[in-house]
């Protein structure tokens, strides 16, 4: 096992106890914990650099603007975007997708056009497209998911046609951990002239992402799932697409000139960043990405895949436990149900042991319907998790079975 777990000491919250037990945090798919470097970057900004950006001639305002711009540069390098103008700051993945649906979608889609979404999307990559479909008459079609939790690529190929305008797909499923073959999905979509948005919310903390190699048109992620703060996220968009898109929110900072007759707009990306942005959040995101880069995403990925393997072996020995999603390519997530125990009961019993997991539909209700389940229990890993954390999860599940009057696990 790599030395990544040594970094647990960087995360102050991991030292606290919950219900008198050591905190075992396995809900990283929902949000990751923050290292001291990120907490300190945000605090330092307010202590030493706070001023509004882009508006002041005074030193602090320029300094604050420099820090904000530096963060955008960091994100550019992180995603290997060709140009810094292709990085738009948003509140998170959800807002990034809503931006694309509202701006690109409203200007490019008409009645009868087809939007393809995968059957394993988070609600945030479903509902914005439904709203758009209701407004435009466009039609949503769903790429089916196999029993193993993979996208049915043969069905996908058969669904693409000259009416397909848009394909929305998650890079990694938040409910199953499946890593989707997004490069191939994009290649085929481009073959019929469709635009592709990749929801990278569950990918960026677990693997290197190169938007140019993928060839995607849009890529979205949230800072808080990448050891950064809440309230900051990123939309990557190819410059020629962003340049041709209208603003989606109006206000300060996104304009060039304003009169009561007519306004002209700033260039991309400012055009999409109306109002005072989350300056502190962007600076803390810069620190979070620097932190991850310092460790190396390859090391993090290797560590987490070792944990998924270890957890899969250990959980498979628990009688009545069934994995949901057994895709050949998976990242950082194990999803399962236990016969006779509702996932919420599992979550509550584990919580009493200090083990935090997620239980429920994971904002992927259509996927749960696909499997005929109300929800699953999900353990999701981060760079600071260890085999001892997995052992605590397994011990908690065995206890849950005992409490429910089931025989001792093997
Ligand atoms: C795959 C996926 N997409 C989108 C989101 C939404 O992210 P946010 O709530 O940060 O906007 C999540 C959050 O769980 C997710 O897992």
Structure description:
The protein is 39% helix and 17% strand. A 7-stranded mixed beta sheet has the order 4-10-9-8-7-5-6, with helices on both faces. Strands 13-14-17-16 form a 4-stranded antiparallel beta sheet, covered by helices on one side. Strands 1-2 form a two-stranded antiparallel ribbon. It has 410 residues and is an alpha/beta fold. The protein has 13 helices and 17 strands. It is globular and about 75 Å long. The structure holds pyridoxal-5'-phosphate. Pyridoxal-5'-phosphate binds next to helix 3.
What descriptive keywords fit this protein?
410 residues; alpha/beta; 7-stranded mixed sheet; 4-stranded antiparallel sheet; 13 helices; 39% helix; binds pyridoxal-5'-phosphate
